[in-house]
Design brief:
With 125 residues, the chain is mostly helical. 62% of the residues lie in helices and 10% in strands. It is built from 5 helices and 4 strands, in the order αααααββββ. Helix 1 crosses helix 3. It is elongated. The two termini are 31 Å apart.
Length: 125
Amino acid sequence: MNESMAFLTELAVRERKNPGEGLLGQLVRDHGDEISDKELAGFADGLLTGGHDTSTSMLALGTLWLLENPDELAKVREGGEHVSKVVEELLRYMTVVQVAFPASPGRTWSWAASGSPRARWCCAR
């Protein structure tokens, strides 16, 4: 077991004994009998790793995009509401999350006029 998982497992044990106000404590309160310490530690690891990877990658992509678009960079440097609009668009347009999840649509649907049924996968961003 690596150091981070050892730490997170210890954290899961502490949260089970004395659930705090955070997400892990809430999971223990709501689902304590349904989830093991190992599963709780794995969940915490997924949140920690996923949040870190996504944030660092988005910062890098956003910086690159701004450097490649000097007019937008100048507007961002001025501040104001343009900053939040750029951040929102970067999160929507330059997403680093590339995961497909199985989907079960309520009905079968087709792409355009092709007539072939689709909707077995959806892309989550």
